Amino acid sequence: MFGTSRTSRRRISTRAALLTVPLALAGVLGATAPAQAAPAHHTKPTSLTCQGKGIDRSAKVHYRTETFIKAPLRTIWNLQTDVEAWPSWQNPVIPVTMKRLDHGPLRKHSRFQWTIPVPPGMPYPPGDVTIVSTVRQLQPGECVRWTGPLDGPGGMHIDGVHVWNFVKVPGGVIVRTEESHTGPQVDNDVPDSTAMLGQGLEIWLKDLKKAAENR
């Protein structure tokens, strides 16, 4: 980005890393740095669903994207549903701790917790941001949908809904994802929050593609 200082670039990188979690922390924790625009989508495809349920259609902030991954469906599905192992193949700038709150394969009603420290220099009190996600729908090898509130210092709160679809095609799998956010921190700046959410989802897909294709 032209004319961007090293400090600003570090802030953008931190926000991009935070956005790899299912709620757009970058839009909240890094509100002082400009968002990099996500790739433009010129058409408006049908909203993704899992067992008939999708994102929050009333949300002002939402984003959908997809990628082709040249890897077996089983490999991709196992990476995406082993939530405690996400930090091993994602590349966050700041540490993210994942914890399953139940045992066994990911399934309907499974819950998992994200813990992310607020980075220094952000306009929020020090402390941790916590997300508790609950799987609402899951069809093995086909789709998963979870919801989860984000809560953090200074009254931070965002509600998110995240849907993933996996479609086998010749030579690999098309992975599609869509997410919505609601809450005052994102509703107060819809364009920037949407751009940052999109940036985070693009990073997530890029990391998933790299991890799966390198297996």
Automatic annotation (TrEMBL):
Any Pfam family matching the protein: Polyketide_cyc2
The keyword Signal is annotated on this UniProt entry: yes
Residues in the signal sequence: 1-37
Keyword line: Signal
Stored InterPro entries: Polyketide_cyclase/dehydratase, START-like_dom_sf, TAT_signal
Protein origin, superkingdom: Bacteria
Keyword Cell inner membrane: no
Gene3D superfamilies the UniProt entry points to: 3.30.530.20
PROSITE patterns the UniProt entry points to: TAT
Protein name: Polyketide cyclase /reductase
Native organism: Amycolatopsis decaplanina DSM 44594
